Amino acid sequence: MKISKYISIIILLLVTSMASAQVKFEAKVSKKKLGVNERLRIDFEMNKDGDNFVPPDFKDFTVVGGPNTSVSNSWVNGKRSYAKTYSYFLSPKKRGKFTIKQATIEIDGETYKTFPITIEVSTAVDQPNAPPGASEIASENIHLVAEVSKNNPYLNEAITVIYKLYVAPDVGVSNWREKDNPRYNDFWSQNIEIKALNQQKGLYKGKEYRYVVLKKTVLYPQKSGKLKIEPLVLDINVEVPSGRADIFGRQIMTKVPQTVTAGGRTIDVKPLPLDGRPTDFKGAVGDFQFNVTTSKTQLNATESLQAKIEVSGKGNLKLFELPKLTTPSSLEVYEPEHKENVSTNLNGMRGRISDTYTIVPQYRGKYPIPSISFSYFDLKTESYKRITSDEMVIDVLEGPTPSANNSENSAVSNTKQTVRPNTNTFAFIKTSSNWADIESKPFFKSTGFWSMLLLPFLGIPLAIAIRKNKDKRDADVQGNRIRQANRLARKYLGEARKNLGKKEAFYESLERALHNYLKAKLNIETSDFNKEKIESLLIERRVESTVVLDFISILENCELARYTPITQVTMQNDYDKAAKTISLIDKQLR
């Protein structure tokens, strides 16, 4: 009996020691799916105290709170319960799927690790989880609003989106940055430059606020139906009253980070009416004037004149094609030179576009140029209008005439000549020769002989130099990478040129060329591409801001081309602009 009693005690002690030795160290999150304007809490819990706690690298998140440490000790029914927690509050930097990697800690000389956790970040939500304390005060006193000029425009009618930040009088804002830019899918868009953030007073939901205009964008819808404008999301440092005062009685302010969003907007785009639509309608919407002019109406053959087709006014000037010039086949006409002088403000595009044709007549005579018509949809009257130019006559004063040439040729062909036979029919055959002996010299020891003998020896130093240069070039990994990317950029630019007229293939090749160029020049990978990083890296390398903006605008055009109709002229302009911008960056890069 005593032996069995001792065995029971030993087994009980072993079970107790094994249970006490079982260490738990795990990571728990408040949620695995959240909006980009929400916050996430992560707790690293352990049931036994440890040392050298190492949190994971929260590279895809901003730590807005923590680490906060909490310890609990309790005895229940004679059993000790211990728990220690490290807590962090995280704000996601952008949308996507991100993995929070392992945390580590040493407990009783052994290292323990948590399991990785995958977090999915979606677009901003209307009601984000409310942070405690000062953050709650900040969220109630600061608002980001997107004001849309018109919610039901026509197809290709300009609308504006103005983003205003409203701040209550008793809170302040120290700085802000754009966390998530809206993507205007199915819109042609252009941002309007804001030179200074001027503070103004206004009402928001019946209460007085101060506000600043942060962003202005002009949009032209490119398809009818319900189109969504994605929200703008900002990270802001807000100063809120802490409820405490300093020794002078002044309110002590507390800085808290806050994420605000303007919320998504839906635009209901009306299609253009089918009734009364002209057959030559090319998509022009607005209020326009149309002119067809020539530099001269009288000239001589082989001289040149210019015929200009021009549309001016207010509307979607960059989003339609001009009508074509038709001329008699006897006039030689060259490809037109396209010019745009268009400015964009909150009222939309305004200016003029033109195609200038060079015409060279070959023969004398009078050549009529038929009238040309231009149709557009007038937003004021909500009806189609057509403008027709007058017929013009080109008077070629001097030069050959086709009829005269034909008569001369027929006269020559009808003239008969008398053939007189030659009595010496074989006079062209020579019956005697004047050959001379050729002096022959031996090849041995001649100039050619010594040249061929010494040439291989002279080529040895040259071959050595070439080999050294090749080895040096092969060892230059960075240089080879730059040369390879430059070759790829030229290759894809060449592909883009071949694909002019094919929208998807052209812009895909153009985007690949720009990406390969950046990979070489800035030494960054494709996964790191974003407009903000590209802009900052180029400016750091002393590239002019105007050139950087041109480069960014080309990338935006490549993205935009997937959703909007693009003309041949626009593709040619983008290609020329890309080649010019790459050349300028090469010259300015330091």
UniProtKB/TrEMBL annotation:
Record has Membrane as a keyword: yes
InterPro entries attached to this UniProt entry: BatD
Keyword Membrane attached: yes
Pfam family, any one: BatD
Transmembrane parts of this sequence: 448-466
Position of the signal peptide: 1-21
Keywords for this protein: Membrane, Signal, Transmembrane, Transmembrane helix
Protein name as catalogued: Protein BatD
